[in-house]
Amino acid sequence: MQEDILIKNLKNVATQETAFSELVSNYKERLYWHIRRIVLDHDDTDDVLQNTFIKVFQNINSFKEESAVYTWLYRIATNEALSFLKKKATIFNTSSEELQSFLVENLKADVYFDGDEIQLKLQQAIASLPEKQRLVFNMKYYEEMKYEDISKILDTSVGGLKASYHHAVKKIEAFLKD
């Protein structure tokens, strides 16, 4: 379904349920992996994904259609994931950096993580990055997003994103060499 028709159907009470089911069907896997790269845990990812779609449903009428649906969805998912991590760090009385290290270490025991030692090392390198660089790297490297789309999701300039990605790559390379 074309995006403009989908939005129209989402905002119409009579067609909202069907359109929302289609939206979830179209985006749930992509958003799952986007969120998973931020929160790292399968169960936490499911919770954040569910919260994301609840927020989307509750706020569909406030969607101004100034951006593509997918960038709006990714922005909500990103914000939900980051909020979740902040709450989790507060609950465990730890810093965001310590929480990231803990989550990466838990990947070894995660039955849903099927990566090898190299992928685990890459995840450790990514976890060592500052939050913005981590987000930009994941969106550019794994999801192959365009800088313009990442810019809309993170509300940052394209030039700033390119610099963040460059610094992230250099830090990951240095981490992997050690």
Automatic annotation (TrEMBL):
<dbReference type="GO" id="GO:0016987">
    <property type="term" value="F:sigma factor activity"/>
</dbReference>
<dbReference type="GO" id="GO:0003677">
    <property type="term" value="F:DNA binding"/>
</dbReference>
<dbReference type="InterPro" id="IPR036388">
    <property type="entry name" value="WH-like_DNA-bd_sf"/>
</dbReference>
<comment type="similarity">
    <text>Belongs to the sigma-70 factor family. ECF subfamily.</text>
</comment>
<feature type="domain" description="RNA polymerase sigma factor 70 region 4 type 2">
    <location>
        <begin position="120"/>
        <end position="172"/>
    </location>
</feature>
<dbReference type="InterPro" id="IPR007627">
    <property type="entry name" value="RNA_pol_sigma70_r2"/>
</dbReference>
<dbReference type="InterPro" id="IPR013249">
    <property type="entry name" value="RNA_pol_sigma70_r4_t2"/>
</dbReference>
<protein>
    <recommendedName>
        <fullName>RNA polymerase sigma factor</fullName>
    </recommendedName>
</protein>
<dbReference type="InterPro" id="IPR039425">
    <property type="entry name" value="RNA_pol_sigma-70-like"/>
</dbReference>
<keyword id="KW-0731">Sigma factor</keyword>
<dbReference type="Pfam" id="PF04542">
    <property type="entry name" value="Sigma70_r2"/>
</dbReference>
<dbReference type="InterPro" id="IPR000838">
    <property type="entry name" value="RNA_pol_sigma70_ECF_CS"/>
</dbReference>
<dbReference type="InterPro" id="IPR013325">
    <property type="entry name" value="RNA_pol_sigma_r2"/>
</dbReference>
<dbReference type="InterPro" id="IPR014284">
    <property type="entry name" value="RNA_pol_sigma-70_dom"/>
</dbReference>
<keyword id="KW-0805">Transcription regulation</keyword>
<dbReference type="Pfam" id="PF08281">
    <property type="entry name" value="Sigma70_r4_2"/>
</dbReference>
<keyword id="KW-0238">DNA-binding</keyword>
<dbReference type="GO" id="GO:0006352">
    <property type="term" value="P:DNA-templated transcription initiation"/>
</dbReference>
<dbReference type="InterPro" id="IPR013324">
    <property type="entry name" value="RNA_pol_sigma_r3/r4-like"/>
</dbReference>
<keyword id="KW-0804">Transcription</keyword>
<feature type="domain" description="RNA polymerase sigma-70 region 2">
    <location>
        <begin position="23"/>
        <end position="89"/>
    </location>
</feature>
